[in-house]
Amino acid sequence: TGYLRKRSAEYMRDWQVWDVLSAEALWHSRSGWDKLGKWRKQNRAWSWVMHGCVLELNACPWLLSLEPSLFWWSAEKNEQLLQFWETYILIMETLEGNQVGALRMFESENKTLTKEGILHFLELYETKRLPNSFVFSEFVIGPLMDALSESSLYSRMPGQSIGACPPLGMRLQKFLATYLTLLPEEEKGSFLLKFIQKMTSRHWCAVPILFLSMALASIPACKVLGAEGLQALRDVLQCTMITHQILLRGAAQCYLLQTTMHLTDVEKVSFPEVSSFLLSLRPEESLRRDTLLWTELCSWLQVNDRCFRNSVTSDLGRQETSSLCQYVHSLVGQYLKASAPERENCFMPDWFEAKLVSTMILLAADVEQMKNKYSGKSNIEWIELEAFLNPLLDVLMKLGSNAYIPTLRADKSLQLLLKLLQTRWLKCSNVGDLDRCDLYLALIPEIMNLCLKVNLKKMSSIKNFLSSLINASIRNLQERNSEKEPKVKEQIRKVAGMASLAAVCEIMDGELEVHLESLPSVDALKKFISFSQFNEVLKKPSYVEEKNSLQEETTSQGWGKIVARFVCDQWICLRFVLNSSATLAQGCEETSAMSLSTAERSKEILQSALEALSILPSDQVSPVFDCMKVLVPKLLGSSEALCIEAFDLAWKIISSLSNTQLIFWANLKAFVQFIFDTEVLAVAASAKGQAYTKIKEIIFKLIDLSTTKTGVFNVVLSHCCQSWIFPTVDERSALTNAFLNAGNYSELITEACVFGTVFRKDQRHIQDVHAFIENLGEKCAANVATESANRDDHFVRICAVKFLCLLDGSNILHKTFMEDIFIKLLDKDELVSRSRTRYYANSLQHRIKNRVWQTLLVLLPKLNQNFLCETLDRVFQAGFSNNQASVKYLIEWIVILTLHKYPQFLDKFWDCFCYDEEKLKKSICTFLSVLAHFDIILQNTSEKKPALKKALLVVLQWCFSHNFSVRLYALIALKKIWGMCRMLHVEEFEALTPVIESSLQQVENMHGTGNARRNWQRIQDHFFFATFHPVEDYSLETIFYILPRLSELAEDEWISLSRFDRFTDIPLPAAFQCHSRTELHGLKPSDWSQQDMGSHLAEGDSQTEWTDVQKKIIPWKNSTPSLDLEMAFQDRAAKLGKSNSRLIVVASLIDKPTNLGGLCRTSEIFGASALVVGSLHYIQDKQFQHLSVSAEQWLPLVEVKPSQLVDYLQQKKTEGYTIIGVEQTAKSFDLTEYCFPEKSLLLLGNEHEGIPANLIHHLDVCVEIPQQGIIRSLNVHVSGALLIWEYTRQQVIKQKQQQ
Predict the structure, then answer these.
(1) CB atoms within 10 A of CB 158
(2) What is d(CA 770, CA 247) in angstroms, rounded to the nearest whole number?
(3) Is-contact 1235 1208, C-beta < 8 A?
(4) Cα–Cα distance measured from residue 591 to residue 578, given in angstroms and rounded to the nearest whole number
(5) pLDDT in tens, 425-461
(6) What CA–CA distance (Å, rounded) separates 1103 from 1106?
């Protein structure tokens, strides 16, 4: 010990070590690790040095005062730290030189390793001894934040529920809050400023910037940021606008505003700077007036009122403070002023100022209300609000009397009024690109809304105004130009007239209860529109007249844009006329112009609509769709070709807009309301012609589009379900029963029941973050401010299931429809089973089958006896299929419920046991599981003894099966049935009593070292036999949430009952609203999944604390695994950096665990870069593990299913790999003559069929092994081993030659 201490001290005084450890800041740079590895190679006593360092730190505490310091010590945790450093030394000594780089976690390409490194680093906050050094701060702002920019790091950990905060998000909050509290006051501001500026230095994705903003908002309140910090936060706000994830964008804005309120030193910032920051927030996404965030902002302004820095310095040079009321007073006054140069400018003022002033007025008003509330005043006096609005009221009062008021001032006052009204009623729509006409017209519905809320007496004057507006607009439009070349003012007057009529029509089409239809001018409007020529294009005006501002305005916008606006307004007016009149000629006297029949006039208008679709911009076609919805049903019989042309052109427009986020959804909604209008569907279905076929074709096109653009199917299904089961009162069709459409287009519901794609990992990650934000509820204002788009894929299935839940089995139409859906779902299940008999857990095929049987389970109670009698055989046949566990449980449940309700079907059930053993060997456990609930099946029958006798005879024969699992299921069923026999005293089986009871007793008391006794106990404790009650547990929550969770379906298949309540406006019947029993909620997935996961338990890690440094170690074995099994095994070997080879061995076609285990061992020994298998579940097989001898823990394993091989091979070709098949073909190379490229991919065939023909043409070359014997084939493991060795031998020779 003395010698070791002396040697350690000598090495410790070698300052070369400390230079590397401290000055290079091991975590800060790559060079630190490189120098450390180089120094370690040159000093064999590396481990003694580090051990000596630890001992000397105890003896010499002065070493801890070195700055900057990497290591620090705690005498209280001496034992733990000694054990840690000894383990660290052993790992460093065990790893080879090139593997030390694996510890550079923040720079690793392996995201799992990076995540582990960051999580452990952030745990430093628990020590409360974070190093206070410039190097550490630079590391946090530099490499740490660079690493935090990766979105995938913020994923949930296994075991976390959906909607929980990811571990990295929680630790980031605690780390940042702790680190800031430990920093000196003078350094906090500079650190935070650099941190925030770093967030603007690159293009961050939505997820990282959200959690960084949340971490900033969690810092305890301290006044450290000034004007520069506020500007930096505003820059971060601009960065959030890049993402199209609206909810995440809004949430980030909320947290950045909270950061501003917590960290800003109000004495260093002014109200203009604060208001400019607030204006960067979008009210439709975050800062809305009815949110808790708005209240928190008002409270902050109230507390800090008169503390903000004045934007103007006093004459004495002293910095004065400003109050909110003073600032808003001056803001309103400055806004309504118009200087002489501005008065000459006739262009519309910028809306930014109006938005700023209106926001600050409302904030000041709410702060005043808050002050009055806290002061205890019973009558609130809006003194300040009146003072703010008086200047605006003065201008508004003069608009009708003072002809000399500046145009700019009038425009500004109306803009401010409009913004105040829109914000007051929480409307956040952008009117966009307004000229004065748009401004005035936009004010009309807002003022009407205000009058309806406040003063109904004013409505008469508004109606008079609207009548005058309609009459004046019609006169302007009817005027004929006397000159050949129209002038600008004349044409703009026509545009304004049509826009005015469109605005009035939209008001009457809206939900405002103003009853304007009784006005005489409305009849004149209908008459004028009915006789109008549609798609009338205004002739471009002449610019010969003197140049003026109006001419500049029209040329700047473009005459084409103005004409498109004019045409669109025509169709808005026509939409109102069509919706309010039975025929176009209603209310009009007969004239020569209306001599055409209504059908001919409708055809003429539909042709004009097609023309309008071809000339209008995509964002203005919605009113045309609405008009076509009225016209097409009238013409389907006489002009079907024209209607089909309308369908095709409408679909062409929608499909072309699929990548245009801003206008796609509004147009899609109008398109769906047109194509899937109740009358359109009914007329097309009654004729069963080409239009009916075209609509069904569009249905499947929309479903196909939904797989790439989430939310499309949601819009279609929501509209159809609402219109079919809750039809509107004002149906135009004689076909009053809208539910007929459900039967005619049942494919829509069938596809909806099984809809949903298998999401990529990044898509699931975004959904998880969305769920986390939604779970915050009102605490995050974005949940209140953002409009729910209902674009979740669960929406489709929930909507379909709720639709089915509302159906009534006593209604003949409902009954027929449900039976049709039941048959079609069974057909879909059989189709999936035939197309791919072997499918993998959580694959798309598995999910479709699971969704099919979930829906069938929902429908089951609504079906009558005769129908079930006809279809029960198909249910039994499904039980014979090779199904995944979750599907088997659903089939068993359906069989139990059917036999429980109709015991007379038991004879059909007994027939299932009469098939030959070959058919029953994989499915008999399904039917034996049904018998394990025989007590529930016989609840509704009085004659139980004959059924028990038959059941006992059936079960006893399977108790002697060769298969151990079958015997277990038979015994569990026997135990149940025999218990019932004893309770009922069935005398026929008295002779068998000793045999059966001794057998059951022997099973209960079985001994031995194997798994038999353990498996017997587990199957008795199994959820399906011990806890589950098929009748009492029947609920939507059990079907769609509990069962998928316990059967280990992917989490994106779990649908909670709260989602059924939250999604769609379709009500859920009370019978389906009940929750599952509490006994089910407490069960863990392992309790449920053991039935189909094999009869063996995973062997525990019996490895004791190792002492032999020569033994291979797995330092990451106990680290938290990734969510994906594939990543868990792939990353383990990558962390160790063992392999240098560029050889990939693909064994996806091999399905025997012994061959795969041997190949895994061979590939690891000869340094292959990866082994590709068809399923990573083989790794758990005992035979695989026996042959691999832990090679899978050191070799990257990748899962590529056989169906995915073509895409995988093509991908590897693009990466420069040569695809080599081990196969005998006419052009195959002899192994002894073939030269392997460095980047080689070796594809091995199946044990029996070899490489399929469809893969042969994807190979670059085939290689065969020369043979001398009679037998013409080798074991696939042996063949693979020969080629792997030959590749390795050639690469070793090449390396030696290069050296």
Answers:
(1) 10
(2) 7
(3) no
(4) 19
(5) 444 444 433 466 777 777 777 777 777 666 666 777 8
(6) 8
